[in-house]
Write a structure and sequence with these properties.
five-stranded mixed beta sheet; 47 helices; single chain; 5% strand; Four Helix Bundle (Hemerythrin (Met), subunit A); mainly alpha
């Protein structure tokens, strides 16, 4: 091997040729003699194409076919024309072979320019006419002329600096070329069957990608044929003649000849599919779509475009079927039908192909197309800007109209361009129809280089593809399964438009009491051309329907306006409502059902983020909430601002607890525990701040303080209106006197109480210390010894009873545990209660029933103090605990329900009695919370006002019109509970 061969081979390897020995042989072939020096202009140009080896080999064949003289000027000087030719030869072996057979088409590559659709039609009609086709048959002439134009499209595609940026032009040109070929085929049909042509009018309607102006290089062309009899010809005879013409059009395009084939003409999308007649009249199409068509057929009609044949007939068809397209989403189960169809497509992909599918697989072209089409069909009923056949144009319109987030639309646009560009390169390499990503490294390298991806191109191609697949799938799931779509589709088009002239009438029909006020809110939210207003115009018709299902739709709409005005400037609020799971419906329920939640949202709008997604909303643990509070407090230097930050977290977490309760994703027990944990966390946060203030003022902390939860807080049974009943206990630090420690503890406790009771935007937390020894006259905090001494010497029976629910909630854990150990001997006393102590407790309970019940209150309806209510159940259970917990450790719990269940298990209550007490207690707790959520303020009795009762019933999950029934239900439960209480608490049985 000579020095030149070694040098050439090395240069070829460095330049990106794979089979350098073969490439060197072609480079030194006589056809390229004098033109192919290493590093020279020609070889350098070849090295830059997608497949340099293929380009070099095909170029030698082309020069051999044409002759050196005819190509010397083109190949020896760097030019745009030469670059186009070399890139075509390096991208498509099939079209390279065509150029070798038809070298006269080199000019179509070198001089390629964009063509109008009408120019393409004229060119192909000229090619198939008798004067233009010469010795060729009309079918061969059409194929040759078609490929000449195809070469021009390919030349512009592969020579573009960024093929992905111009892929929409490429796809549109391919669709125009297919339409021109169909027009030429119609001309051939008329020439071949002149008698049929005289009896019928025929129009060819492009469907699918051809109809959308976004065709591939190799694809079936989906069509529908429309025919009408010529004037004076009977319809049956005319349709028979039109069918002859249509069959000839299909043969002209699909038959295999010496020049190959164009593509299959597929009329399977016609009414009744392959079983239906090939040609129908416009009227026959209309009858079919009115009576028989399935959902997928209307989706297919979205792309229908007349491209060939009788233009007037084609336009008549388009006008006749257009209303069916934009009414399709009103069909029953439309959205779920489209979703099911997409799922079926995926299920039918052979398993071996799923990961390689560019078109049908997850994250592929179909995900983009189905998402866009579904949104078009649902929202295009009322928004004509969405009525485009083209995927990328429709996607841009959806983004402009606010139906798709701009960033999501940009991601889908980029992915679609990439996938279509890859699909093109997979197809035109051998001019074969395929939608599978190649597996061989050589093919991956060719495609990556053709798309100008960074070296190594094969690896870059795979990485970019996988990233686009993930993004497309994620956005597809977000858009395609968006719950709002089904809700919008269920609206009548006139209801979805929000036209002011019809709005008042609709508001009245929906149950709004102030139609004029509702209209003002709508106009304020949707005025103008901003993106926010556009999204609101999509949301509001559905939101109004949800509001109308509630007791107070007017208040729901007003609240929606206020919240939207607070959050409308954010990037996430409207996007969340439009895109994320059940967020919009959840917000509608919240705004129309709960003034408590509305108030929280108005004060802490960011809490609306909790609405997002479909996840179950559950309260967070004490540890998680406290960690969030402490992180927020840490960012504040001023202790007062630190407390403000902690209270803001409390508002957000209150919203979470209330939301979970309202939408029934958290149980009553989970809500009570969550509220209790939240109250514990805010008390601990206040203690942290109080100690911080004390240290700032005094230099060091001489005492440790812990808080003990009492009542419902101690039992982890807090409701939304519950106070924090607490005791304080302290322990001196080393070398600190009891007096100094007590003084410091008092100051810290006072500071905690002040911090928690300070005015603020959040619902107040009553910090009640009246259960401490000696009540309001006693010290705010005592030491362990102080509590033990008091309990031993002075505590009355009711004070022992109060300790049943004592549980440490804040401060040092070991100090809280010391307190528990100190009071356990008194609450779980050996021998239980004496007869005198039982009488004392019974007497106190009876006095409370007579004195503490508010004047005028119905004792049957009062949740807490009424007959069979919360107090009856709790006192009954606590009396059992005081009597028997010393012998039965399962009764040693601060939880009412746990103790109740233990009493049943121990036989201290019958199963029936336990159920009666539990149902009354749980129902009273639920109703008290429901009224609090509805009214935004506490209430102690079953509502008697019709609206309040109905609202409470809805929150509790009862159906419309159940307000009075819900109240009667509670009264029955309370009556049974009272019977048990009188028998077990006041009765003569041994307890």
């Amino acid at each position: 091997m000579g020095a030149r061969s070694v040098s050439l081979t090395g240069w070829l390897a460095r330049a990106g040729f794979e089979d350098t020995a073969t490439a060197a042989r072609f480079a030194t072939a006589a056809e390229l003699e004098g033109w192919s020096a290493p590093g020279g202009s020609l070889l350098t140009g070849i090295s830059q194409v997608a497949d340099p080896d293929l380009a070099l080999k095909t170029l030698v064949r082309l020069v051999a076919a044409v002759g050196r003289d005819r190509l010397e000027d083109l190949l020896t000087a760097q030019s745009l024309g030469r670059d186009r030719l070399l890139r075509v030869l390096g991208e498509s072996a099939a079209l390279g072979d065509h150029l070798v057979r038809h070298p006269e088409h080199i000019s179509a590559v070198v001089d390629a320019v964009p063509m109008e659709a009408s120019e393409r039609v004229r060119d192909l009609l000229q090619a198939v006419c008798p004067q233009g086709r010469g010795d060729l048959s009309s079918q061969d002439a059409l194929r040759v002329a078609y490929r000449r134009q195809l070469l021009g499209i390919l030349a512009l595609d592969v020579s573009a600096p960024n093929p992905q940026a111009t892929v929409h032009h490429t796809a549109a040109a391919l669709a125009d070329l297919a339409g021109a070929a169909l027009e030429a085929a119609v001309a051939v049909a008329h020439e071949t069957h002149p008698q049929a042509g005289s009896k019928a009018r025929l129009a060819v309607i492009a469907m699918g990608k051809c109809g959308g102006g976004e065709l591939n290089y190799i694809s079936d062309v989906d069509v529908i044929f429309v025919g009408e009899p010529a004037e004076g010809v009977p319809e049956e005879e005319g349709i028979e003649a039109a069918t002859v013409l249509a069959a000839e059009v299909m043969r002209t395009c699909s038959a295999h000849t010496g020049e190959g084939t164009l593509w299959q003409v597929d009329p399977a999308l016609r009414p009744e599919g392959k079983q239906g007649p090939l040609v129908r009249t416009v009227a026959s199409h209309v009858r079919y779509y009115k009576r028989w068509a399935k959902t997928w057929e209307f989706q297919a009609l979205l792309k229908a475009r007349a491209v060939a044949g009788d233009a007037e007939l084609g336009q008549a068809y388009e006008e006749a079927i257009r209303p069916f397209v934009w009414q399709a989403a009103s069909r029953e189960n439309f959205v779920t039908d489209v979703q099911a169809m997409r799922a079926r497509v995926e299920r039918h992909i052979p398993p071996a192909e799923v990961d390689r599918q560019l078109k049908l697989g997850p994250g592929g072209l179909r995900d983009v197309e189905f998402s866009v089409q579904l949104l078009q069909l649902v929202h295009g009923r009322t928004d004509e800007s969405l009525r485009s056949r083209n995927t990328l144009e429709a996607l841009a319109a959806l983004a402009a109209g606010g139906y798709v987030a701009r960033e999501d639309a940009a991601a889908l646009d980029a992915a679609y361009r990439f996938l279509r560009s890859v699909e093109h390169r997979v197809q035109f390499a051998k001019m074969k129809r395929t939608h599978l990503m190649p597996q061989g490294p050589h093919d991956l390298q060719r495609i990556g280089r053709g798309l100008r991806l960074a070296a190594p191109a094969a690896e870059s191609l795979t990485a970019v593809w996988q990233e686009h697949k993930r993004t497309v799938r994620q956005i597809h799931k977000l858009l395609f399964y968006r719950p709002l779509l089904s809700a919008v589709a269920r609206l009548r088009p006139e209801d979805a438009r929000l036209r002011p002239e019809a709005a008042k009438e609709r508001f009245a029909a929906l149950g709004f009491s102030d139609s004029a006020g509702a209209l003002r809110h709508i106009e304020a939210l949707t005025a103008g051309v901003s993106r926010t207003a556009a999204i609101q115009r999509t949301l509001l018709p559905v939101m109004l329907g949800w509001f109308a299902e509630e007791v107070d739709p007017d208040n729901g709409l007003l609240a929606f306006r206020r919240i939207s005005e607070s959050l409308g400037h954010t990037t996430w609020y409207l996007r969340m409502l439009r895109d994320e799971g059940k967020a919009a419906e959840r917000l509608a329920r919240v705004l129309a059902r709960s003034r408590f939640l509305v108030s929280l949202l108005e004060q802490t709008p960011d809490a609306a983020r909790i609405l997002s997604g479909d996840a179950v909303v559950l309260p967070r643990s004490r540890e998680a909430v406290l960690a969030t509070m402490r992180a927020a407090m840490k960012r504040q230097d001023d202790p007062a601002e630190a407390m403000v930050a902690a209270r803001k977290v409390r508002r957000s977490e209150l919203f979470r607890c209330a939301l979970g309760d309202l939408i029934d994703t958290s149980s009553t027990e989970e809500t009570m525990r969550g509220l209790s944990d939240l109250n514990e966390a805010i008390v601990q946060a206040a203690l942290d701040v109080a100690e911080r203030i004390y240290i700032a003022e005094h230099g060091q902390l001489p005492v440790q303080v812990a808080f003990i939860g009492m009542g419902r807080l101690g039992g982890r049974e807090c409701g939304f209106a519950s106070d924090a009943d607490v005791l304080a206990v302290h322990r001196p630090c080393q070398e600190v006197s009891d007096e100094d420690a007590a003084a410091a503890a008092k100051e810290i406790v006072q500071q905690v109480r002040s911090l928690l009771s300070a005015p603020g935007p959040d619902p107040s937390l009553g910090f009640d210390m009246d259960l401490r020894p000696e009540g309001k006259t006693g010290p705010l905090s005592r030491s362990i010894a102080g509590y033990s001494s008091y309990m031993q010497r002075w505590a009355q029976a009711w004070e022992r009873q109060a300790m049943v629910r004592a549980r440490p909630i804040a401060g040092p854990e070991d100090l809280g545990e010391e307190f528990v150990q100190a009071v356990d001997p008194y609450r779980w006393a050996e021998g239980g209660l004496t007869d005198a102590q039982v009488r004392e407790i019974r007497k106190l309970k009876a006095r409370m029933e007579g004195e503490r019940l508010p004047r005028g209150a119905d004792p049957r309806r009062h949740f807490k103090l009424g007959r069979g209510g919360l107090s009856d159940v709790e006192w009954t259970v606590q009396l059992i605990q005081l009597q028997h917990a010393n012998q039965h450790p399962t009764l040693r719990t601060t939880s009412t329900l746990e103790a109740l269940h233990a009493a049943v298990d121990l036989g201290l209550l019958t199963q029936i009695e336990g159920v009666a007490l539990e149902e009354a207690w749980v129902t009273a707790s639920q109703m008290r919370d429901a009224v609090m959520l509805w009214r935004g303020r506490s209430a102690d009795s079953v509502p008697e006002h019709v609206v309040d009762a109905e609202a409470m019933a809805r929150i509790l999950g009862w159906g419309p019109g159940s307000g009075s029934e819900t109240g009667e239900h509670y009264l029955r439960l309370a009556r049974h509970s009272r019977e048990v209480m009188e028998r077990r608490f006041y009765g003569q049985e041994t307890i």
